[in-house]
Amino acid sequence: MSIELKGVNKSYGETRALRDVTLTFGDNKIIGLLGRNGAGKTTMLKVISGLIFTDGGEVTVDGERAVENDKALGKMYLMSEETYYPGGMKIRDVFKWSKRFYPDFDEGYAARLAAEFGLNQKKNVRSLSTGYLSIFKLIVALSVNTPYLFLDEPVLGLDANHRELFYRLLLEKYAEKPSTIVISTHLIEEIAALIEHVVIIKNGEILRDEPREDLLREGYTVAGAAALVDAYSENRRKIGEDSLGGLKTVYLLGPPDDVPAGLEVSGLDLQKLFIRLTNS
Amino acid sequence: MKLKQSYLYQLREHQKPIIIFYIVVMIVLPLLLVTSVTSYDGVVPMIIAEEVQGEDGATIVYESRELTPEELEEWQSVQSQFSGMDAATVIFLFVCGLAVFREQFGMLSQNGVSRKTVFRGRIAAVLTIAFGMAVIDKINLIAFKWACSLIGEDVICTSLFEQLYNSETKVRGTLTTHVYSFIFCLVSYLAAAMFGYLISLTFYRLGKAGKISVAAGVPALLFIALPIVNFYVADGKITKWAERAFDYMFGFTQSLPFHAFVTLAAMFAVFSGLCWLLMRRAVVKD
A78 touching B, CB under 8 A? Predict the structure, then answer.
């Protein structure tokens, strides 16, 4: 049970958005798909969902070719940054049609989420603000109950309260009915605790594809008095630092060794590692 | 396979426009009937202008002449004539075809429907809509003919088919005329709906430069280049050939409606085929 990309290429004119991408989205995991702007995240998700075609390579869903395959396409749902629902359609009608297209769509759950987020189901899609448009699409995504769910910038325009509510609901849903959820976002700090697996894409190529814990084991964080931290980090591979008054935090690659007393050692920050890995 | 959902969704998308269309028809037609009956002044033209050969034998001139007794009798028997209800449906379905593609394609693709199933759903929906509207238009026509007959013999109501194939309808009995008229409507509606869809799909697939080229190029070719070539180079042969071909394809002169049935059905098939060729590689645009 997995979605596999084998040697997938995609170009837009001179720009190569995906370069020979081979990747597997395994069974029942929350996966973070991370990359800088224009790295190829959205292109990858659109290729998988059949919205656009590859220039080469193939995508399979549970062993079946995904392209133009209703059965394979029916096993996944893409919450896209763009809105493909008709602007004049009411939210409640979108829920009804979603039920027809995805038999496992839970209309009752969608209605409950709409109430919890304060989304008026009588409104047209076109009349929603950016934040509520994201909320509306998130509700459909959370209610659709497909084995594979792709969320492309799911919290775009959401305030902190709604973002927190979404993360809670996502975890509840995952705990209740595990599925493969791929989240593509720039808010790495916010999803760092949610994801079990990380895929980092840079210039259309897969840079890293490994469990989050393995990735974070590549380095560590040291914090303490600035002079002490500087002395410790002097000959080590530093990937970032933060200072506040006389206190300093540095992010280092490699295993922690010979840490002097007075310094506090903790795990690596995913965002710092991401920045380090994806900087040109 | 999500064919049923694709079909139902595309059918449902037409529901509201069709209801509005028939509400307008139901309001406008009786109003036309009432106003035409009350505004008729009983004056009958005694003289008409007719196309005749000029003195040089080459030019066409218009000469006035009196109506023949037969023409006068025919004119006097008709106070008002209502026609073209089905022509309105043809235009309506063409416009619907133009309008629906982009949104439907996005919605269906968002819901995991393949292009193949979108296309099959479209064909099934168009067949259903064309058949349904042909039935409704036929019922409307019969009802309206009946209403006209209540008012008097001098108010008549005809279908597009009866207008185009007048001699055919005089030869055939009423039932046959209705059946032929129904088939004519059905294939006309199918061709119109698919032609609109084809234009919409063509523009969807084209880039900016392509859209401008087609939007400017086709009218320029048809209304500027072709008449010039026809007049200066081909000595009018192109229009004569086109007239003959058009006449044969639709069987107007010989009053052969079967020609039109076959032509319109073939147009529907060709438009559908072209739509599929355009749709199979279409991508969902932002």
Answer: yes
| φ/ψ (deg, to 5) at B110 | -60, -30
* CA-to-CA separations, B183 to A137, A244, B209, B220, B250, in angstroms, rounded: 45, 83, 40, 35, 13
Packing angle, helices A160-176 and A107-117, rounded to 10 = 160
Q: Is A239 helix (H, G, I), strand (E, B) or coil?
A: strand
pLDDT tens string B127-175: 999 999 999 999 998 888 888 888 776 677 888 888 888 776 666 778 8
Model ipTM? 0.91
Running DSSP on this structure, what letter comes out for residue A50? T
User: Quick check: A68 and B115 CB within 8 A?
Assistant: yes
Scanning chain B, the segments in alpha helix (DSSP H) are: 3-39, 69-76, 85-110, 115-151, 160-164, 166-171, 174-205, 208-220, 226-228, 237-250, 257-279
d(CA A6, CA A200): 17
Q: How far apart are the first and last CA of chain B?
A: 25
Q: What is chain A's Cα-based Rg?
A: 21
pTM of the model: 0.87
Cα–Cα distance measured from residue A90 to residue A124, given in angstroms and rounded to the nearest whole number: 4
Residue A7 is encoded by which pair of tokens? 């040697």
Nearest chain A CA: its distance from B10 CA (Å): 12
Task: Looking at the complex, report in whole angstroms how far the Cα of residue A71 sits from the nearest Cα belonging to chain B.
Answer: 6
pLDDT band at A240 (very low <50, low <70, confident <90, very high): confident
Rounded distance between C-alpha atoms, residue A115 and residue A165, angstroms: 13
